[in-house]
Design goal:
By secondary structure, this protein is mostly beta strands. The protein has helices at 4-9, 40-43, 89-98, 103-106, 195-205; strands at 17-22, 28-36, 45-50, 53-58, 73-78, 81-85, 122-130, 133-144, 147-158, 165-170, 187-190, 211-220, 226-232. It has a single domain (4-232), classed as Glutamine Phosphoribosylpyrophosphate, subunit 1, domain 1. The chain contains 5 helices and 13 strands.
Length: 235
């Protein structure tokens, strides 16, 4: 396993990232989602709580030029399932699961973002609580090595979750012009028992110039209750 804070400290621009895993004591399912940005439009955002999760909003609405790929529901809850993603596919997954489709089936109608020449991957995750434990899955949809005529679809399932272990997936391999998209499997990372420690370890090691917002949720798998932390650079 890798130290998440070291991975972040060594990468100026992983883009948007999802971490899902279990605390070392196995009592909590952990979800973290962060957003970064290099353009004024991307940086003009904050995370806000909603009735069933978290969404992005413009920090200064007067400066928002194009909301299509930057304003969306990032986290939603459906029964015993918590969905997280880097775009409006959160709502697509929610609708699919509500219609008794699987996580994978729900994403069949979606592909990478229409932002040439990058074609930013769509990354998504879902946590399912069951019988006092939980399992989770991660997905990435990306162009075929930059060819927008084909979408490569990858699904990673972790069942059951392993105490102390999480998996980290992000949109960009590193900074660049344009940035290179993520490749390979999600990275196994260590998870902390304490939500404050875990949140600070992520936030403090994200690149200061590019980081925008961070959301962390610890879910008690026995009761389904949860604790959230949100940090916004724009305050």
């Amino acid at each position: 396993m890798k130290d998440l804070q070291n991975l972040l400290a060594q990468n100026a621009y992983p883009g948007r990232g999802i971490v899902i895993g279990a605390t070392p004591d196995g009592k909590n399912a952990v979800i973290a989602y962060f957003i970064m940005g290099r353009s004024e439009n991307s940086r003009n955002r904050v995370f806000v709580k909603t009735a069933d999760g978290v969404r992005t909003e413009a920090f200064d609405p007067s400066k928002m030029k194009d909301p299509s790929l930057v304003i969306y529901n990032a986290v939603r809850v459906l029964g015993n399932k918590t969905i997280v993603s880097n775009g409006d596919q959160t709502d697509t997954i929610y609708a699919g699961l509500d219609a008794q489709k699987t996580f994978e089936e729900s994403l069949q109608c979606r592909e990478f973002e229409p932002d040439p020449p990058i074609y930013t991957p769509r990354i998504s995750g879902v946590v399912r609580l069951k019988d006092g434990g939980f399992n989770y899955a991660l997905s990435i949809l990306k162009s075929a090595d930059g060819n927008p005529e084909s979408c490569n679809r990858f699904l990673y399932t972790y069942k059951p979750a392993v105490a102390g272990v999480g998996h980290f997936i992000h949109t960009y391999k590193c900074d660049g012009n344009p940035p290179e998209v993520f490749s390979g499997e999600p990275t196994a990372v260590k998870i902390a028992d304490n939500i404050d420690e875990f949140t600070q370890n992520i936030w403090e090691n994200l690149n200061e110039a590019n980081k925008i917002s961070l959301f962390v949720r610890y879910i008690d798998v026995a009761t389904g209750t949860y604790q959230d932390k949100i940090i916004n650079k724009n305050v």
